[in-house]
Amino acid sequence: MIRKLIDGIKRTEAPIVVGLDPKVDFIPKRILDKAISQHGESAEAVAEAFWQFNKEIVDHIHDLVPAVKPQIAMYEQYGIPGLIAYKKTVDYCHEKGLLVIADVKRGDIGSTSESYALSHLGGTKVGSSIVKGFDADFATVNPYLGSDGVKPFINVCNEFDKGIFVLVKTSNPSSGELQDKIADGKPLYETVGALVEEWGAQSMDGDYSNVGAVVGATYPEIGRILRDVMPHAFILVPGYGAQGGKGSDLVHFFDKDGLGAIVNSSRGIIAAWKNEKYGDPAKELLGEAARAAVIDMKEDIAGALK
Amino acid sequence: MIRKLIDGIKRTEAPIVVGLDPKVDFIPKRILDKAISQHGESAEAVAEAFWQFNKEIVDHIHDLVPAVKPQIAMYEQYGIPGLIAYKKTVDYCHEKGLLVIADVKRGDIGSTSESYALSHLGGTKVGSSIVKGFDADFATVNPYLGSDGVKPFINVCNEFDKGIFVLVKTSNPSSGELQDKIADGKPLYETVGALVEEWGAQSMDGDYSNVGAVVGATYPEIGRILRDVMPHAFILVPGYGAQGGKGSDLVHFFDKDGLGAIVNSSRGIIAAWKNEKYGDPAKELLGEAARAAVIDMKEDIAGALK
Q1: In this complex, which of A41, A105, A118 lies closest to B127 when CB atoms are compared?
Q2: Rg value, chain B, Cα
Q3: Which CATH superfamily is domain A2-301 in?
Q4: In this predicted complex, what is the ipTM?
Q5: Domain map of chain A by residue range?
Q6: One digit per residue, pLDDT tens: chain B, 306 residues?
Q7: Rg (CA), chain A
Q8: How far apart are CA A154 and CA A162, in angstroms?
């Protein structure tokens, strides 16, 4: 699967993933009002608004980027209707030729991790039929439970041609509380990085493996170190834009060919219509502003990688 | 909320939580066949079977224990229909007077953790209405992202009178790969345990806090240490029974009053009907066998705590 992502990055010349992380605050009034008029003040209304919101963004950006990354928590917050909107979004992105990175950060003991892997990446036999859960292309995985929590995901990657990104160094301010702890003479994120490289050997797909890593744009120096620790792991880089990461911070995450990393931006793109830089917010130019923001981000990263 | 759990433990004299972790293999043929005859070989059929399975168990055990712990991965595996069965199970357990520990192991950066917390424990304002997601009483939380990933859960606990159990030392064989790493002169699980105690100070509810910890029954010596490190944290103990933990292993997880811990058993109870000890498996005595297995577990633990 990682090869498909790399092909997509080469085709679009954009190592960019758009984070589809809707919040009620980001939804233009025209979309939200219509949904509430149809469904009342309900989870169904928010879910419908999320779906229309995502659809308009995807319609305007699908030719510019290889992938999207919906953050499932945003949908899960609205229960079953929210998750129906999540699933519709995944399917619609596939129709539009986008790869989908399910930002689910799941992880459990072995047999339970297998269920999560089948839920988000694989499928389960029921009698003679295969039943799919959410069927994304990649999922993010939490490593705190160790190898036997991650390996079921790798098995599913191998069976269904999918990929994962393991949390190594997250973008948030307190990520260091555990991830930076020095043990065996090195920070814990390096230990996890070495595990990612080891796990990846079981699922190579071209120059990279289907076992990637999440490393926050907010820690560029750590990105440089981890790029060396994990030569076969693609890095998913959150934290660009709204969380503080800039294009120039990203250089070290990439390999010498300008590959090896894909940068996520959520708010900077999906809420760009609220930024006067992209037109009068009162006009609610959701799709157009998202497209312009992706083009700006593409230039920022290309400039930095030059 | 932790006080409600303690009251329930005292009332039932059972520091026991029944893990509602259905798998197709555990479902009696009479239930599965009926569901497939209604819904075909589909996710809907499995979801209906899970729901009937849970209902029969809950009907037979609700007076014996204070709480259940559905493992959401089992339901998520079957997509939207699976999660509908999960939600029906949570609501039904509440009707029967049981507390529900949502075993979701969620955790993300701050704003995203807030969404997860609202999803599983709280509710979200939509206009003037409050929209609930899955509305359990407790959730399990992964600490790998540090304080800013956990605090949004604590805020929601305080607002909605709920609780969490933070993963400290999990029951699986490779839990030590990261959790046992020695940093600052002590294993990482002790660092996380100390954080749990610190976080708990923000949500005290009687002698214990609403911030509990998950510590596997498979590591009794570590349980003893963590009991001291976290004097105000209730311990949720998985790994009893099928994973290898015995009643005598559990002593150290409890305080001097026989409180401070609650032990989970899943397969040993919900698949007890497949064990000849509880009657001829061909009779598929799902509910009766689950009840007998809970009573056996209660005696095992009471004997060990004497």
Answers
A1: A41
A2: 19
A3: Aldolase class I (3.20.20.70)
A4: 0.97
A5: 2-301
A6: 999 999 999 999 999 999 999 999 999 999 999 999 999 999 999 999 999 999 999 999 999 999 999 999 999 999 999 999 999 999 999 999 999 999 999 999 999 999 999 999 999 999 899 999 999 999 999 999 999 999 999 999 999 999 999 999 999 999 999 999 999 999 999 999 999 999 999 999 999 999 999 999 999 999 999 999 999 999 999 988 766 767 888 999 999 888 999 999 999 999 999 999 999 999 999 999 999 999 999 999 999 888
A7: 19
A8: 9
DSSP per-residue string spanning B10-68: HHHT--EEE-----GGGS-HHHHHHHHHHH-SSHHHHHHHHHHHHHHHHHHHTTT-SEE
Interchain pair A87, B79: CB under 8 A: yes
Contact B142 A178 (CB under 8 A): no
Q: Which two tokens stand for residue B175?
A: 């839990």
- B2-22+64-76+97-300 falls under which CATH superfamily? Aldolase class I (3.20.20.70)
The residue of chain B nearest to residue A129, with distances taken between CA atoms, is B41
pTM > 0.80: yes or no? yes
DSSP letter, residue B178: H
Residue identified by tokens 């399975």 is: B53
Question: In the block, which residue shows the tokens 């509430």?
Answer: A36
A131 Cα to chain B: minimum distance (Å):
6
- Cβ–Cβ gap B73/A115 under 8 Å: yes
**Which of B73, B128, B148 is nearest residue A173 as measured by Cβ atoms?**
B148
d(CA A3, CA A27): 34
- CA B65 – CA B68 distance, rounded (Å): 8
Find, in chain B, the residue whose alpha carbon is nearest to that of A119: B77
Report the residue from B120, B131, B188 with minimal CB separation from A78.
Answer: B131
Active site residues of B: 105
| Identified catalytic residue from A34, A105, A132, A151 | A105
Q: Which residues pair with A264 in a beta bridge?
A: A17
Question: Has A105 been annotated as catalytic?
Answer: yes
**Nearest-by-CA chain B residue for A185:** B183
